[in-house]
Amino acid sequence: MATMVLNATDLFDFEVINSPNKPRPFPLAGASIKSTDALYHPKAGSIQLKHAGFTHMQLIDMRWDIASDIELHDTVPSNSISINFMLQGTVDSRFRGLSHDLNMRAGTHNLIHTPESGHTNQMTGRQSMASLLIGLDRDFFAASIGQDDAWSEQILTELHHDRPFSGVKGVQTITPQMQHLIDDIRNPKATGPMRNLLIQSRVLELVALEIEQFQKPVAGSETVPPHEAEKLHQLKAYLEATFLEEHTLAQLSRYCLLNEFKVKKGFKELFDTTVFNYLRKLRMEYAGKLLRNCSYTVDEVAATLGYEHSQHFSIAYKKYTGLTPSHYQQGKKSVVMA
């Protein structure tokens, strides 16, 4: 199938979805974020945008159900600082002036400044892509980061000379703390004027965490080079986002672009556990959260984790925690009743 070529401005020329047979837009959260209709193109798919604009920042919460392979060209120059938190899907980007590509995967982020136009984004079809895009005023960003460390000094130098840059070469992992802030930004609980204040404060806190991560780049070890360590950290974030899915070593190897030996050896070296033991840990901890809720039966929790028979789940849970799910849940109920 041939790749469809679009300009970024074409996204706003899509047909508005008004047919019950066309894809449904995803639910919107909060009147303070201005929302487009669900936009549709027979080859490009459906796209939903939520936008919020403030004095020094612009936010776009985007979901795109991509129908076929797309090459998206950005022909409009921008002097702002652009940040992408990739929540779902994949996109491979090439920015004019940067010597390296940015291959964004679910659970990763980066920051760029590319004042020239001519950027290209490659997206494969038959995928759902979701991301939180943040645009910061250049002068506001420069005044906010200070110059107390090598990373900030380098960034200020690049801005002074109006040169393109990215926060790091490659991408970084969205941490659980970042994800919590992203959830608050996308679904703010406050109402009225407090909603806008909450969104802005969460964005600033999120950017501060991102910069802190850039200032302390992912380190390798004696046996894991930094570029491989970065990919393994991305793999770890991917597992944290998809731990309820079935995974094979071959599939995970393709995801992080490392061979199976490097995935097994490097993951154990960096995180002191194997890939599949880490998956088991994530699943059992999630099961514990569901059991603590007390509104789920053991059978329902087992089904959520993908077990065909709840007895198999009970055996696995007891092996991991020392308690059967029923005993664990009964203990929590006793605490609640007390």
From TrEMBL:
Ranges of residues in domain HTH araC/xylS-type: 233-331
Source species, domain of life: Bacteria
Gene3D superfamilies xrefs: Homeodomain-like
GO molecular function terms noted in the UniProt entry: DNA-binding transcription factor activity; sequence-specific DNA binding
Keyword Transmembrane helix included in the entry's annotation: no
SMART domains in UniProt: HTH_ARAC
Stored InterPro entries: Homeodomain-like_sf, HTH_AraC, PchR_regulatory_protein, Tscrpt_reg_AraC-type_HTH
PROSITE patterns according to UniProt: HTH_ARAC_FAMILY_2
Keywords of the record: DNA-binding, Transcription, Transcription regulation
Protein's name according to its UniProt entry: Helix-turn-helix domain-containing protein
Organism in which the protein naturally occurs: Larkinella terrae
